[in-house]
Amino acid sequence: MPPRIRTLRLAAAALTAGACVLAAAPPATAAAPHGFRPGAPGGGDPYFPAEGNGGYDVGHYDLSLDYAPAADTLAATAVISARATQDLSRFDLDLKQLTVKSVTVNGRKAKYTRKGQELAITPAKGLHRGKKFTVKVVYGGTPKPIERPDIGKFGWIKTPDGAYVVSEPDGASTWFPSNDHPQDKATYTYKVTVPKGTQVLSNGEPGGTTTKGGKSTFVWNERTPMASYLAMLAIGKFQVKKGKTASGVPVITAVAPNRADELTTIHDDTIKAIDWEEKVFGKYPFQSTGGIRVGVDVEFSLETQSRPIYGFEPDQGVIVHELAHQWFGDSVSVKRWKDIWLNEGFATYAEWLWDEQHGGRTAKQTFDLLYNEPTTWPYYADLWTARQAGNPGADEMFTLTAYYRGGMTLQALRGRIGDKAFFALLKQWTKLHRNGNVTTKDFIALAEKVSHKQLDGLFHAWLYTKSKPTTW
Ligand SMILES: [Zn+2]
Predict the structure, then answer these.
(1) Domain of 270: which CATH number?
(2) Cα(132) to centroid of ligand 1, in Å?
(3) What is the pLDDT of residues 170-210, one digit of tens each?
(4) Residues within 5 Å of ion ligand 1 by Cβ?
């Protein structure tokens, strides 16, 4: 997402959530066969202890969603294909707010309980480590967004004629049961049924539309593994434009009718951005691209995989930012949320580089402007003294630190290792970790390998101090 200066809170709030303890696996129940035990109810991320779950790995989500915009109700079935990573007597999915009607595992009825966002499922038979299994959850209700202090409302957002979804960081579980952490990426099929005349857009590629009895069902397939927070739907009325990038990537751009005047610009700017980014970052990581401009204005856009959602009229810089995330964040994803600068610092730096290579300020000039801002600048504390860019805290992930100080970290690195090594590093990073998960440590190791320089002092100064670096 783009930096949200509007929602910045200054200094004081800082780090509180960093102290969360890891969720441990609960003890095995007496009824569990020997060796079979419940999977952990959390994925082990200190920022979001309840997000994600242990004991299995999802391969594919098949989501059938029947949404009635007028009543704002969802009737849904999720079929989740997964593989057990331990002998499992029980496992959790994340699901917020909605009502569960039934759960089966491998076709047999399974017991389940709800507690907070945990949907704990006990299959009729234990699941053997290494074996594939299928969970079917029938559920529904009125999906509701959730809220964070630094970004406001997110998750499932109702609009006058439909809804759209922006789920970073933990909103996916507001609309489907999931292993809701970027570490467990999976492919997706969506079959979304809406009243005839309403359209549905999503990640990936369209798989056809059928209309029957006053309802239409739209199929979309995301065939490249995707983090749950990047799963996206846009339901409503849209004007659609199709095309191709210079390298032949199909482009689907859609805007709400009241934003029709933005369609051509968003579409053309998307192609310009991808054409340029493929030269700088390497081959585009997904099978299609585009963008969706929703009809309501919110200061929120998100790099939903293959096709970002724009909650405001995006300029070229915002489009460059959200599409840079297709490489940095979507294809190469964080293993833990504290490394969010690997998403936001890189997407911010992509904007600076775009300016540099299109007749604007150089990235170094942008760096210097920020570095020399006086202490009276309203966001001074956020950038320099409030928190670490490499560990900003769960509640402060989307403040300026990860974005601007993250981008400045890359400029400092470029200055140290030179252009040749720096641009080689960007391409190696996206290629080596394509569709994978990474940590800052991985990036430092690769930067040192590519440049043959010791860089721990530089990264420490920029990412892990709460002061303005003076030497690096
Ligand atoms: Zn972003």
Answers:
(1) 1.10.390.10
(2) 35
(3) 999 999 999 999 999 999 999 999 999 999 999 999 999 99
(4) 1, 344, 347
